[in-house]
């Protein structure tokens, strides 16, 4: 067996390749001069992704995946390797992380191994690893509204692990901890447990949940004043402990007090914010963890919410923070200014009484955030950023002359993963063409759309229906915004959790589209475009295409989605694109089950297939050119 040093060296190369893959998947235009160079660069990039990905698959299969086999008895070296690899994949301070689902799988395996060993040290280290892994998985799954029940499962697992650590805060048990590292893990988790507080499943009443939240951190803060812990954890950084606990307390009121702390609790949080600012004045060496601009933000928000200042002063403070912030800081700290402050400004607004001045701010915020999402390096902070993006889209405000909701969605897709944006453009073109053919040949299939109950009325509304087909297809993958980090997992095979995440994009997208009048009619298409025509397979399982008035359009977009995805040689060139005839053969084999017969029958016409070929070649090239020019503006 290869020794650990060599295995770690191979896994280090895996991480380096994984980071390179992220960069290649969404290249900037820094060294690209025109649209043709951009297309060539993408083709080369995804070719390299394919090569790097294959190496990573081989590395994991040789050095990592065997360790996850539940029938394998882990040796001491195996356990140490899992710990080391996990720590290499994540940095809780910078929020940089790679391969979160792998981290969680490792955490589960380490918990199993610790239970078997019975060692206190093994149990403490494994529980700490599980808390971190659970928190990261909560961050991914909680944004997948309304399909976010998994976040409660991760919460419960994480809380169980954290509670097992906090039991060691008992004086007698604390003395049983074998070394300084274990004592540090227990003390850190006394405050870090706050990151696991997700209560929206009704398990706790809001008032009870808020009280638990505050009491937990107040207890963590009190540890610093207890001589027992000071004596028996003398090497622990107590200044960092106090600082972070005060910071967590100050951050409880996120999203304009979405947790609904009562007035007495808000006053208490405000006092802790004052303590935070004073503590950092006395400890300027810690200020990098919470710079003055971030302190100003906490003070402005908690002063307003507790009644010590008014809403106008709060908004002025947020605008000042946005103006003074560094829009080229793409760290977790930089996101605080470029994403948190703008979102809090939006949350503070009365949507029914927005002034012209506020409209100007909203327009600027959306342009700036789309640009920030594009320029941000696609590194390990991507998952962190997506939490902000999901909140933005779920609370979007359209203003006259500003960016429409669907345009914002399209810009964000283009900014974070251009191949998905081009795919959406291609699917829209293909769907519109196939829809036009069906409108000409079988208009009765569209009965019921726009109130047209017969073929004659359908034909009179052909332009409107074609536009609807195009726009609905354009938005069919909008739910992928929320799982971009999973979409970017090119360097290995997806684990079951990630496949589940992929499957959520239809329901998440439909839910998002339903929020806004201008896109609500597209929801069924986004929801069902991976459902089989005969409703026998696909997802979501609880949807029947036959019951939707848009059933014909769903079938058109489903086929268009398949045709583009299967023939793509850029966005999916790591797998290699099929020829159009090969894809048509697949559609014919699935006619009547996976695909609608009336769509597949269109492909018997050579004029139709010739036009499709043109869309998939010249049309696709044109869409990459359009994408290039869009990204130039960002």
What does the secondary structure layout of this molecule look like, with pairings?
Elements: H1 4-25, H2 35-63, H3 76-89, E1 90-91, E2 96-97, H4 100-117, H5 120-142, H6 150-166, H7 171-174, H8 180-192, H9 206-223, H10 227-232, H11 238-250, H12 254-257, H13 263-282, H14 292-305, H15 311-324, H16 332-347, H17 356-375, H18 382-394, H19 405-416, H20 418-441, H21 455-460, H22 462-474, H23 484-487, H24 496-514, H25 523-528, E3 530-531, E4 538-539, H26 551-567, H27 580-589, H28 597-600, H29 606-633
Helix pairs in contact: 1-2, 1-3, 2-29, 3-4, 4-5, 5-6, 5-8, 8-11, 9-11, 11-13, 13-14, 14-15, 15-16, 16-17, 16-18, 17-19, 19-20, 20-22, 20-26, 20-29, 26-27
What brief labels describe this structure?
single chain; 634 residues; mainly alpha; Hypothetical protein af1432; two-stranded antiparallel sheet; two-stranded antiparallel ribbon; 29 helices; 66% helix; 1% strand; globular
Task: Note down, in words, how this protein is organized.
The chain has 634 residues and is mainly α. Among the domains are: 72-198, no CATH class; 410-633, Orthogonal Bundle (Hypothetical protein af1432), CATH 1.10.3210. It is 66% helix and 1% strand. It has helices at 4-25, 35-63, 76-89, 100-117, 120-142, 150-166, 171-174, 180-192, 206-223, 227-232, 238-250, 254-257, 263-282, 292-305, 311-324, 332-347, 356-375, 382-394, 405-416, 418-441, 455-460, 462-474, 484-487, 496-514, 523-528, 551-567, 580-589, 597-600, 606-633; strands at residues 90-91, 96-97, 530-531, 538-539. The strands form two sheets. A two-stranded antiparallel sheet has the order 1-2. A two-stranded antiparallel sheet has the order 3-4. Helix 26 crosses helix 27 (580-589). The longest helix is centred in the first third of the chain and has 29 residues, at 35-63. The two termini are 51 Å apart. The mean pLDDT is 91.
């Amino acid at each position: 067996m290869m020794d650990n040093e060599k295995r770690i060296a191979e896994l280090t190369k895996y991480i380096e390749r994984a980071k390179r893959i992220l960069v290649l998947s969404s290249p900037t235009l820094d060294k690209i001069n025109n649209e043709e160079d951009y297309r060539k660069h993408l083709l080369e990039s995804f070719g390299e992704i394919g090569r790097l990905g294959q190496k990573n698959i081989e590395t994991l299969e040789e050095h990592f995946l065997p360790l996850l086999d539940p029938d394998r008895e882990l040796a001491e070296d195996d356990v140490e390797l899992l710990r080391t690899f996990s720590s290499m994949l994540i940095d809780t301070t910078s929020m940089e992380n790679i391969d979160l689902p792998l981290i969680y799988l490792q955490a589960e395996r380490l918990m199993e191994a610790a239970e078997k060993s019975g060692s206190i040290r093994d149990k403490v280290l494994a529980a700490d690893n599980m808390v971190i892994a659970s928190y990261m998985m909560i961050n991914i799954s909680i944004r997948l509204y309304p399909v976010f029940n998994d976040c409660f499962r991760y919460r419960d697992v994480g809380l169980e692990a954290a509670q097992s650590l906090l039991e060691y805060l008992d004086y007698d048990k604390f003395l049983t901890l074998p070394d300084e590292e274990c004592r540090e893990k227990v003390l850190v988790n006394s405050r870090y447990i706050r990151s696991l507080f997700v209560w929206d499943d009704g398990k706790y009443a809001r008032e009870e949940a808020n009280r638990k939240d505050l009491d937990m951190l107040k207890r963590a803060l009190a540890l610093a004043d207890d001589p027992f812990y000071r004596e028996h954890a003398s090497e622990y950084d107590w200044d960092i402990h106090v600082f972070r606990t005060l910071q967590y307390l100050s951050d409880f009121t996120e999203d304009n007090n979405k947790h609904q702390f009562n007035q007495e609790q808000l006053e208490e949080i405000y006092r802790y914010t004052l303590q935070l600012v004073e503590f950092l004045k006395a400890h300027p060496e810690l200020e990098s963890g919470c710079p003055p601009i971030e302190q100003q933000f906490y003070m402005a928000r908690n002063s307003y919410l507790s009644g010590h200042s008014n809403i106008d002063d709060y908004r002025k403070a947020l605008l000042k923070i946005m103006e003074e912030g560094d829009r080229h800081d793409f760290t977790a700290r930089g996101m605080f200014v470029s994403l948190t402050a703008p979102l809090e400004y939006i949350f503070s607004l009365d949507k029914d009484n927005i002034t012209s001045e506020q409209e100007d701010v909203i327009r600027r915020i959306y342009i700036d955030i789309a640009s920030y999402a594009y320029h941000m390096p696609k590194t390990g902070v991507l998952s962190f950023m997506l939490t902000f993006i999901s909140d933005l889209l779920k609370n979007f405000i359209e203003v006259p002359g500003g960016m429409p909701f669907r345009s914002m969605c399209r810009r964000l897709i283009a900014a974070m993963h251009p191949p998905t944006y081009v795919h959406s453009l291609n699917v829209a073109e293909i769907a519109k063409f196939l829809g036009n053919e069906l409108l000409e040949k079988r208009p009765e299939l569209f009965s019921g759309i726009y109130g047209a109950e017969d073929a004659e009325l359908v034909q009179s509304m052909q332009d409107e229906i074609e536009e609807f087909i195009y726009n609905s297809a354009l938005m069919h993958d909008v739910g992928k915004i929320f799982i971009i980090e999973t979409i970017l997992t090119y360097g290995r095979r997806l684990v079951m959790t990630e496949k589940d995440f992929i499957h959520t994009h239809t329901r998440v997208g439909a839910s998002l589209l339903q929020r806004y009048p201008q896109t609500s009619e597209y929801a069924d298409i986004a929801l069902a475009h991976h459902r089989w025509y005969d409703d026998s397979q696909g997802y979501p399982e609880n949807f029947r295409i036959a019951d939707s008035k848009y059933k014909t359009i769903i079938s058109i977009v489903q086929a268009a989605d398949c045709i583009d995805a299967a023939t793509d040689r850029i966005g999916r060139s790591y797998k290699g694109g099929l020829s159009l005839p090969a894809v048509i053969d697949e559609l014919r084999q699935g006619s009547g089950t996976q695909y609608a017969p009336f769509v597949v029958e269109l492909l018997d016409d050579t004029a139709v297939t010739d036009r499709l070929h043109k869309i998939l070649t010249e049309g696709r090239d044109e869409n990459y050119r359009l994408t290039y020019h869009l990204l130039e503006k960002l």
